[in-house]
Design goal:
This protein has 14 helices and 6 strands. By secondary structure, the chain is an alpha/beta fold. Strands 1-5-6-4-3-2 form a 6-stranded mixed beta sheet, sandwiched between helices.
Length: 316
């Protein structure tokens, strides 16, 4: 899901694809989110008529909402395992400065699509399973098992897809990789989220594996790929390419491929590290293409390289 500021104006249909130790020690006594923040969530839930919200916490996360206690516990257990693996993986790529935040990250866990609609103030939409709010630092999701009549046996699969995509967003903005107050192209933030979304418990999926579902968003033929391809300069500059329904699927696929190709190559990963460090404090979006060109080279040439990469990504 697109990382949001505080509104719910940007929607996307990426769930349609889903449906068809160098680690810092765990902080057992991590601080809770600010009490007034949790109170605000409780108050909002009451205001929109949802049952009294309950809470569950683990070392680095706190879940709050009307979802069942079993769902809250399972979601946070998965978040913890995924977060551990995500941090270890990024450190193996040279991102040595990353660490868990001192305060627990908030996950609003809702019981169903109806609860999600009430909480967000929008009509229930089963192709939007959750979102991450950058300015409030909240991950908001619902249990698709409450909508089995609509999605059937895919409920658990969609729960995982949503949870790990949005958790990837939350981790990148909380571990120090991205600056929530900076200017981050959606192409980059979504690329990192899709890079992490493939993770699954019990070694069923590891951070950085080939995201086959994202690749389904690309045209099958070489000519179709050339015709539909969005120039990298455009993706760095224009966030709307990842918001517009017409270009969303290929935009997300290209975002995944870009980050995956950078992470996979020992020669390219330092360039990605340098780029992310350079934009960390940047707030001016006018320098986006200039920064990208400085660190990744000629973006037109990189377009051709990346098109070849998605035709046969490493691991396919």
């Amino acid at each position: 899901m697109l990382p949001r500021q505080s509104t719910l104006s940007h929607r996307r249909n990426w769930l349609k694809l889903a449906v068809a130790s160098c680690l810092t020690p765990s902080i057992a006594n991590a601080q809770e989110p600010k009490p007034d923040d949790l109170t605000a969530i409780d108050t909002h839930g009451e205001k929109v008529g949802l049952p009294k919200f309950q809470r569950t916490q683990t070392a680095h996360f706190l879940a709050i909402g009307d979802a069942s206690s079993a769902f809250r516990a399972a979601a946070l257990n998965a978040c913890e395992k995924m977060a551990d693996d995500f941090l270890v993986h990024l450190r193996t790529k040279g991102f040595d400065q990353l660490a868990f935040p001192k305060k627990r990250m908030t996950v609003v866990t809702l019981a169903s699509g109806a609860s999600y609609a009430a909480y967000t103030g929008e009509t229930a939409d089963l192709v939007v399973g959750g979102h991450y709010e950058v300015d409030t630092n909240r991950l908001v999701m619902f249990d698709f098992r409450g909508n089995r009549a609509e999605v059937g046996a895919a409920a658990e699969r969609i729960n995982s897809f949503v949870l790990f995509h949005e958790t990837s967003h939350q981790l990148t903005f909380n571990m120090g990789l991205l600056n929530p107050k900076g200017d981050v192209p959606l192409f980059i933030s979504e690329g990192l989220a899709t890079y992490g979304e493939v993770w699954r418990p019990n070694d069923k999926g590891r951070v950085g594996q080939v995201d086959r579902e994202r690749l389904q968003g690309l045209p099958a033929s070489s000519k179709g790929l050339r015709d539909a391809w969005i120039p990298l300069a455009t993706l760095f500059k224009d966030d709307e390419q990842l918001r517009a329904k017409e270009t969303q699927q290929i935009g997300y696929a290209q975002a995944w491929a870009f980050i995956h190709s950078q992470m996979k190559s020992p020669d390219r990963t330092p360039k990605l590290r340098a780029y992310l460090a350079a934009i960390h404090e940047r707030t001016d979006s006018s320098k986006r293409v200039e920064d990208a060109t400085k660190h990744f080279g000629d973006l037109t040439k990189l377009d051709a390289t990346l098109r070849a990469y998605v035709r046969k990504p490493i691991g396919m």
